[in-house]
Amino acid sequence: MNSNEILNELSKLGNPNTKKILIKHGAKEPFYGVKVADLKKIQKRIKKDYKLSLELFDTGNSDAMYLAGLIADEDKMTKKDLNKWAKNAYWYMLSEYTVAWIAAKSRFGWELTLKWIQSENENIASAGWSTLLSLVAIKDDLELDISALMKLLDRVEKEIENSPNRVRYTMNGFVISVGAYVKPLTKSALSTAKKIGIVKVDMGGTACKVPKADEYINKIINMGRVGKKKKMARC
C-alpha cells in the first residue's frame, strides 16, 4: 500500500465525535478523526514499513502521522528522521506518543532525549521527557545511567513548576516511570514525587487528569510491580 491509499482508507474511517474530541485535545486540520482501535487494525495488516511510515508522517494528517508511529521500524529510523518527526509533531498525541515511542526503541533514544529536553519548543521538550519515561520502562536497569537519571529527578524537582504546560505533564510522568520501573531509584522518585506534589496542567477543558506521582508510585509498590519492565513502548 502507498500513502494515498492509506489516506483514502482513513477518510472512510473518520468519526465526527472522535474528531471533535481530538480537536479539543489539540489536533488540527487536516485529519479525519479515526479511532486508535481502527488505526491498530491497519497496523496489524501492515506490521512494520519504514518507507511508508515516513510518507504517512509527511502528509501532515494527524491520523496518518499517528499510524506512522504504529508501523515505523525503529531499527531503520535515522537521527535525521527522528529529529524531523520531533520538529513536526505539533500536538501531544504525536510528540509524546508517536515520536517518543519510536525514539525510545531506536538506537538514538538516550542521545536524542537529552537533546530534546533542552529545547525551548514545548512539543520537542515534552517529546524528550516522554521518550525518557518510555526508555526507563523498557530498558533493563543495567542498561540505564542511574546517576544521570538521579540528576534528572533533581532537575524535575527544581524546574517543573516553571516549565511549559505539556513539559510539566511529561516531567511528572517521568518521575512516575522511574519510580515504577527503576528499582534502584524508586525511593528517590517517590521523594521527588512528594516534593513536587500536585502538578497543575491545563488539559484543554477535557476530563483528563494529571496523576499525582507519589500516589501512583505507592500504588505500584503496593501491587508488587516495581521493576517489571514493558516489552515495548508503543501500545
Strand content: under 5%
Rg, nearest Å: 18 Å
Structural class: mainly alpha
Taking the sheet with the most strands, its summary is:
none
Number of strands: 0
Given as residue ranges, the uncertain stretches (5+ residues, pLDDT < 50) are: none
Number of separate domains? 2
From the spread of the alpha carbons, the general shape counts as globular
Helix content: 55-70%
What is the element string, with H for helices and E for strands? HHHHHHHHHHHHH
Distance between the termini: 23 Å
On the 0 to 100 scale, the average pLDDT is 96
Number of helices: 13
Describe this structure in words.
α7 (92-105) runs antiparallel to α8 (109-116), α8 packs antiparallel against α9 (122-138) and α10 packs parallel to α12. With 235 residues, the chain is mostly helical. It has 13 helices and no strands. The protein has helices at residues 3-13, 16-25, 36-46, 50-58, 62-71, 79-88, 92-105, 109-116, 122-138, 146-159, 165-181, 186-196, 213-222. The longest helix is centred in the middle third of the chain and has 17 residues, at 122-138. The mean pLDDT is 96.
